[in-house]
Write a structure and sequence with these properties.
It is built from eleven helices and no strands. It has helices at about 5-30, 30-40, 45-50, 55-70, 75-80, 85-100, 105-115, 120-145, 155-170, 170-180, 185-200.
Length: about 210
């Protein structure tokens, strides 16, 4: 019988494979066979860990969310009423770097977000609402600084998410049209600078 660490390692491998499968194909398009092939395990082993595809989808989403939380510094605007331009800009750059390295989470959520379904409501209740509440506090800070003060903060948040993620979701089209790799380190850094300029360019007051 496999040891506990070996069982945990296999479970993680299944979840990582499922994350890729759900990101690429959506819930309806993902299959046990596809996930098993990506993970290099049998379909029976997947069902040893997860009773159904819904439970595996939930585990993959939580895994991706926890990885993002571990990778990013805490949003400075949740720690300090006014953290200043430099800390806010660095958090945005860190977010863009994470989006470039791990596009699966956003892809997975957006595939389900386009139509009503129980998965997107589950995700909202489990993790997404809390994350959005933190981000809304940051937008309130920006709007207090005179940035986008007359815009709807909910729509503004999705404008930020789209700006941060889109080049990495469309990396193959960018390669086909422009012949460049959007995930290259220098391209990611340049895109992070662009997002900072777009969203913090109107910052008034301190420049630190």
């Amino acid at each position: 019988m496999a040891s506990k660490p070996a069982l945990q390692a296999r479970r993680r491998r299944v979840i990582e494979a499922a994350l890729d499968e759900f990101a690429d194909k959506g819930f309806e398009g993902a299959t046990w066979r596809g996930i098993a092939g990506r993970a290099g395990v049998s379909q029976g082993l997947i069902k040893f860990y997860f009773e159904d595809k819904e439970g595996l989808w939930q585990a993959a989403l939580l895994f991706a969310h926890e990885a993002m939380t571990a990778d990013l510094p805490p949003p400075p605007f949740t720690q300090n009423a006014d953290p200043g331009l430099a800390l806010t800009a660095e958090w945005i750059r860190a977010y863009v770097r994470h989006a470039a390295r791990h596009p699966q989470y956003f892809k997975m959520v957006m595939r389900e977000a386009a139509a009503p379904n129980p998965r997107i409501q589950w995700a909202a209740d489990a993790v997404r609402k809390a994350g959005h509440a933190d981000f809304q506090r940051g937008l309130q800070l920006l709007q207090g600084r005179g940035i986008f003060s007359d815009l709807n903060p909910v729509l503004l948040q999705y404008a930020f998410l789209g700006a941060a993620h889109q080049p990495f979701l469309a990396s193959e089209e960018i390669r086909a049209i422009y012949g460049v790799d959007a995930t290259r380190d220098d391209m990611v850094a340049a895109h992070a600078d662009a997002v900072v300029a777009l969203f913090l360019g109107g910052w008034t007051g301190d420049s630190e």
